[in-house]
Write a structure and sequence with these properties.
Domain Integrase catalytic: 1-121
Number of domains: 2
Strand order of the largest sheet: 1-2
Strand content: 5-15%
Oligomer: single chain
GO molecular function: nucleic acid binding
Pfam families: rve_3 (PF13683)
InterPro entries: Integrase_cat-core (IPR001584), RNaseH-like_sf (IPR012337), RNaseH_sf (IPR036397), Transposase_IS3/IS150/IS904 (IPR050900)
Distance between the termini: 42 Å
Organism: Chryseobacterium limigenitum
């Protein structure tokens, strides 16, 4: 796996779809894979992104990511048969961008969608400032 095709591509897509404002901050959590630790990736992370890596051998560090992947597989992957890699890629992208982040309610967020929660937090931080 090359960083350019994995971690860097994912970070660029995230920045494109959800640009950070100067006052925003983000924690980017990953495992200890080379695609997240290499100079090529670390040099583009940016000043308002704090990198966080899971502890060596600590399975609980990735619990949130593992929970997401379980949901993705249960709600999407196991329900479909993909003829091509592009079909699978487009299906996952559409699921995340048009359903998971914008329509699916999350109990951990007070039954808000991710977008509703982000808007609420953004508005609260603007009102505090």
């Amino acid at each position: 796996m090359k960083a350019q095709d994995t971690s860097i591509a994912a970070l660029k897509m995230a920045r494109l779809h959800r640009p950070l404002q100067d006052h925003d901050s983000l924690i980017f959590h990953s495992d200890r894979g080379i695609q997240y630790a290499c100079t090529e990736f670390t040099s583009i992370v940016g000043k308002n992104i704090t990198r966080s890596m899971s502890g060596k051998g600590n399975c609980y560090d990735n619990a949130v990511a593992e929970s997401f992947f379980k949901t993705l597989k249960t709600e999407l992957i196991y329900q479909n048969k993909y003829e091509t890699r592009d079909h699978a890629k487009n299906s996952v992208f559409e699921y995340i961008e048009t359903f998971y982040n914008t329509q699916r309610r999350h109990s951990a967020l007070g039954n808000l969608t991710i977008r509703e929660y982000q808007n609420l937090m953004s508005n609260q931080s603007k009102n505090v400032a």
